[in-house]
Amino acid sequence: MRQGSDGQTVIRFRAAGAALLLAHLLLVGWLTLRPLDVPWTTASNLQPLAGIRADLSLGPVEATRRIGEGLLLLAPLGVLLPMAGGRLTVSPWASLARTVAAGSLISTTIELAQTGVPGQVVDVDSLLLNTTGVALAHLLVVPMCRARLRRRKQGRAGAVPHPRDEAGQGATPTIPRVGIAP
């Protein structure tokens, strides 16, 4: 198999990740930033874990639903952000840190944008749950998928290179010379 086909696969993978990331962010924006027509709203929650404690007091079914919604809202970012990056050989901890930081910034942006939307209130616990969801999704999916893709790529590396490529390395790039103006 030619070396160029791996590059095309990475480009397609990154493009699919970017398209899915954009679609997910549009959906999240629509869900979280649309005005709600409600007769009253609760006060903003700026005390960490107060909203989670209040959810737990509602019973196990309702608490699971509310906390699960917070965890799942931005969880796909834990997979889509590294997918859009397209890197196979990267430190797992650096990837996790980068992904969680980006997820946290996106969640913070959503919370700040909600201050101007009627019926929506700021809740620091949703920031915590969203960021935790991103981290869990990343930890559960990305390392396993990267390892699988690396094994698949190494399996192809043993294949016979294309005759045009020297030892599977490809042609040496050249830069055309430009003359100096008088």
TrEMBL record:
Region (Disordered): 153-182
Domain VanZ-like: 22-141
InterPro entries in alphabetical order: Teicoplanin_resist-assoc (IPR053150), VanZ-like (IPR006976)
Pfam families: VanZ
Claim: Membrane is one of the keywords in the record: yes
The organism's place on the tree of life at top rank: Bacteria
Segments passing through the bilayer: 12-33, 127-145
UniProt key word Transmembrane helix: yes
Keyword set, alphabetical order: Membrane, Transmembrane, Transmembrane helix
Protein name stated in the entry: VanZ like family protein
Organism of this sequence: Streptomyces atratus
